[in-house]
Prior knowledge:
The complex is a heterodimer of chains A (562) and B (403). Chain A is built from 23 helices and two strands. Chain A has helices spanning 2-13, 17-45, 47-58, 60-93, 99-107, 114-125, 130-135, 145-169, 173-181, 186-215, 218-223, 230-240, 244-276, 291-319, 333-339, 344-373, 380-392, 395-405, 422-447, 450-458, 463-492, 508-517, 521-546; strands spanning 321-323, 327-330. In chain A, strands 1-2 form a two-stranded antiparallel ribbon. In chain A, a hairpin with a 3-residue loop joins strand 1 (321-323) and strand 2. Mean pLDDT of chain A is 80; it is low at 273-283 and 550-562. In chain B, a hairpin with a 2-residue loop joins strand 12 and strand 13. Chain A binds chain B through residues 14, 449, 451-452, 454-463, 465, 469-470, 473-474, and chain B through 72, 74, 93-96, 99-101, 103-105, 107-111, 120-121, 124-125, 168-169, 172, 178.
Amino acid sequence: MGRGLRRVWGRVRGQGAFGASVVASVLIIVGFVLFPAAEIVARSLGADGRAEWERLFGASRTIGTIRNTIWLGVLVGIVGTIAGLIMALVQVRTRFRFKRTLHLIALIPVISPPFAVGMSVITLFGRSGLITKGLFDVRYDIFGLDGLLISLGVSFMPIAYLNFVGMLRAFDGSLEEAATDLGAGLIHRLRTVVLPLLAPGIASSFLLIFVSAIADLGNPVLLGGGYDVLSSRIYLAVIGEFNNDKAAVLAVMLLVPSLLVFSAQYFWLRKREYITVTGKPVGDPKPFEQRRVTWPLQLLAVLMAAFVVLIYGYILVGAFTEVWNINFSPTLDNMRFVLRGAGREAVYDTVLLALLATPISSLAGLVIAFVITQRDFRGKGLLDFASVLGVAIPGTIIGVGLLLAYNAPLLGGLIPKLSGTAAILVLAFTVRSLPGVVRVAVGALNQLSGSLEEASISLGATPAQTFRKVILPLIRPAMFSSLVWSFARSMTSLSPIIFLGTPQWRIMTARILNEADQGRFSNAAAYSVVLVSVVLAAISLLALTTGFRVNDEPTLPDRSMR
Amino acid sequence: MTTTTENQRRTVDSGPASEVVVRVAGVQKIFDSSRGRHEALKSIDLDIFDGEFLTILGPSGCGKTTLLRVLAGFEQPTRGDVLLDGAVITEVPPNHRPMAMVFQSYALFPHLTVHDNIAYGLKIAKVPKAEIAERIEVVLSIMDLVGLGDRLPTQLSGGQQQRVALARSVVVRPRVLLFDEPLSNLDARLRDQMRSELRRIQRQLGVTSVYVTHDQTEAMAMSDRIVVMSEGHIEQVGTPEQIYRRPDSLFVADFIGKANVLPAPVLPGGVTDRAADRVTEGRGPTGEVELFGVTLPLELSDDVGDTATLVLRPEDVLITPFDSPNDHSPVLVDGRIEAAGWLRASEYVGGATHLTFELLDGTLLESIEYHTAAAGPAALPTEGAGVLASFPTAALRSVERRR
């Protein structure tokens, strides 16, 4: 180990600016992911924390909360995985005419805050919902598991969708042709060849959605009703009860299943996915021809897409009417409130902070990815895992952790008190979008043949020159898409920053939740519309200037946890 | 290339007379991974001479690419040293070594034009602009790439890409050129063409070259010397003819060309001049062996025990029709052994026919008969016919039976 470390250090030292960025990236992960998480664990094990453990485990409510949380994760995982699989099958394996539209619709949830869906679900299906009350005249109580299932299912379906699209595209068609040659019919083929090969992807999608669902904060707060989950109770402990010890204990309870499930996906399934679907694709997989297969698939996909459009469309309606779902007179007041009035600051602050975080996470992510993909590097597996922890650990926990860890000056004042400053918000954004950037960059770098780098070095270039002149130009497209992605992610994230917001720095997602909480749904809708518009504008700007296409949307298996 | 000296231009016929450029001294390479420990190189010693074209030949997994990468500096040896012009360069990073590598995948930078690809190393070395232009022009014409400077690599054919890769490496005037199976991605015809092309250019530039391949024909056709490797060690170093005609080990004889392998008992008390008390280097002990019942004096391999392993190239075996093989025991006539048998299989491959026949004692022997327009396959005996095989005892080579 000693020799290995010395070598790594030798490499780092010899590379100037590059070495510095490696150190900085590692510091970001250690300082703003690992340290806050450790702080939570430490806090929960302190004297007050231990008392909270006893108190909480003595209460039957706690057991119920844990059960609720797991149950919610499982159900959302099942719903989201099935929905994503159907959408992906239609996308890759049918000749459906409106495939492209379906693709865009399936991606809408990626660029909107999940709890925007929650608001729409309430107004559509709640006690006075447009559909439940208006159409069927039933007073349906949507608050609880059913409402959460709908909104989280819609929100996290894209995780599975993108996962499956990638897998199905990489599927070696000759396997199926071989099965056909051996006399297998379509159904038989699906059952014996396609599904078994997709099994790791199915499991992986399920687990990632599970982790995302139990981490979500906005929806449980908004429409959980009496259905307690851990994230909403952490929120209440911090915001309502000012009991940080209790929050820390609840956070550990949430951290354990999250890390277990995420690790299972990371260490076990991720590898299998690559083993089962390897080799060069022999052209695009052939579309299904049998109508008895394509019709039901397309019908389901269209229904789901229509549902997504209904939900987001209704947000649009809410943003431009007097009182969402009650008074439908068109008005621009809500938009005026967001763009000109009290909301202006929040829009400005959020965009500014997200813009600050984007280059930081892009640069750090690129550097980490570069280090990870270096061939002989001891401990790179550890760095890789650490770099994705930013999403493996629920945002609520990152948020509480940052709050606890940086509530006072550290290292004898070397690090000032960060909570309450813009810096900690930028850092929260950064660590949350970092894993996605790392994944995108690792994917892009892995596609580069290692001999390109060696060729450059063999011709006399230093590693830094090689990086600048060969590698960077070649992975530029991937980097652009990760820029967009990390910006979108920062703009839409709620859970890590809700505890960190200050009067000086207002964050849109937190304002949306606040407005919705106070019943001003139309204002919340207007905020959401503005937020999504900003993200869309950023994507378009980049598309215009660089030729980035929406298709290049990184097929991230870990978009999750706001 | 304008400064190529007379010394570099000369074709090297190997031997200690030439100046040693690269010395590999006791290099060992162990890969430690989660799947275990793998000793890719087991204490390699090798001298590479100025201007020579040295090929490292061996089956996949023999360590040949690892050795090349150790020379390039991409792998650090676990033990041992690499010397360049007498100076130890083991710790020198690859970008500071005056060597350039040509890769199997060519590794052309896809975002740069042919011109910029070739200029890459020169710009890194901060060569003045005017000189860069001049040197690129020269190399483009040597490589037959004139007019392609503005193309992107994807707009080139495989052979052109290959030449750009070579141009990019030679233009920086490396002390040593390293080739990692550069022809294996080309189709058969182009490969043959590029093979002689590459050799022509190497001769013209006189640059010391180390070439890794698993293709024995490539190695035979291009090299001044060949290093045959197996399982992390060197089996033999020699000129193509030495490797083919005087293989040291069964592995070498078997890996290069076809070989009949004949076990022959060593007659007791016959072995003299063991390695220990040898005066002349390069000669083995001599002794008497028995082959097909005939007693022969023979130079033997160093490790010889009760039985010598003899190899015999198929083209050394001549066959003639023979009516009554049953009555004919093998005899030694005028330095040739004659043995009778039956033709068992005959395979016409165009320019030649591969024949397999069975001797009286059941030994299978292969022979190859080359054809001309005048002497076609029709003149050969048919399968099942009696034949008389004969070969010169001088063609027998006693080899070491390692592993």
